[in-house]
C-alpha cells in the first residue's frame, strides 16, 4: 500500500546545527568507513583489520594483508616451537632471570594469539583463511608432536 503525503503536510525545516562530539573525519561525506560485520562475509573493501589505519580498499591490499596475516600466523607457530625449545633448556634452572625471560616470551605469545583472534573476529572469510592456513602450515613445520601445545586464544 502506497501513501502519498499531501503538500500541506510536507514541511521543510532547516537542518539544526550539530553540536555533537565528533572526531575529525567522522562526519557525513568524510570518506569510506570501516565495515563492522557481525556475520561471516567475503567483503573486499572497507574492511579494517585491528586498527582503523589498516583498512582494505582494493584487491591488492586484501591480497597483501592476507599474505601478511598468513606469515604472522605461521610465525606464531614458530614462536611456540622456539619457546618450547627454550623452556626445555631452562627446565633445570628456575632462577628469577629465567622466569622473567619465560614470562616475557609467554606475554609475546599471548599478545600474538589475541591479535590473531581479533583478525578472525572481522568475520572475513579471506582473512580467516589466512589465519587458519598460516597456523596449519606453521604447525605442520614446527610442531614437535601431533598434539596442540597451547590453545589458540587460551
From TrEMBL:
By its UniProt entry, which InterPro entries does this protein fall under?
Cop_transporter
What superkingdom does the record give? Answer: Eukaryota
Location (main, coarse): membrane
Q: Which UniProt keywords apply?
A: Copper, Copper transport, Ion transport, Membrane, Transmembrane, Transmembrane helix, Transport
Recorded topology in the membrane: Multi-pass membrane protein
| Database matches in Pfam families | Ctr
- Region (Disordered) spans which residues? 1-29
Annotated compartments:
Membrane
**UniProt record similarity statement:** Belongs to the copper transporter (Ctr) (TC 1.A.56) family. SLC31A subfamily.
Name the record gives this protein: Copper transport protein
Amino acid at each position: 500500500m502506497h501513501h502519498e503525503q499531501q503538500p500541506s503536510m510536507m514541511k521543510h525545516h532547516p537542518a539544526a546545527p550539530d553540536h555533537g562530539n565528533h572526531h575529525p573525519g567522522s562526519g557525513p561525506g568524510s570518506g569510506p568507513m570501516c565495515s563492522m560485520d557481525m556475520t561471516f562475509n567475503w567483503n573486499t573493501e572497507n574492511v579494517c583489520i585491528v586498527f582503523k589505519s589498516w583498512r582494505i580498499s582494493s584487491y591488492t591490499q586484501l591480497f597483501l594483508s592476507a599474505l601478511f596475516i598468513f606469515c604472522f600466523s605461521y610465525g606464531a607457530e614458530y614462536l611456540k616451537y622456539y619457546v618450547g625449545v627454550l623452556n626445555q633448556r631452562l627446565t633445570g634452572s628456575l632462577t628469577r632471570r629465567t622466569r622473567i625471560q619465560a614470562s616475557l616470551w609467554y606475554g609475546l605469545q599471548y599478545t600474538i594469539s589475541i591479535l590473531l583472534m581479533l583478525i578472525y573476529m572481522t568475520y572475513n572469510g579471506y582473512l580467516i583463511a589466512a589465519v587458519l592456513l598460516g597456523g596449519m602450515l606453521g604447525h605442520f613445520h614446527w610442531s614437535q608432536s601431533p598434539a596442540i601445545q597451547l590453545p589458540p586464544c587460551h
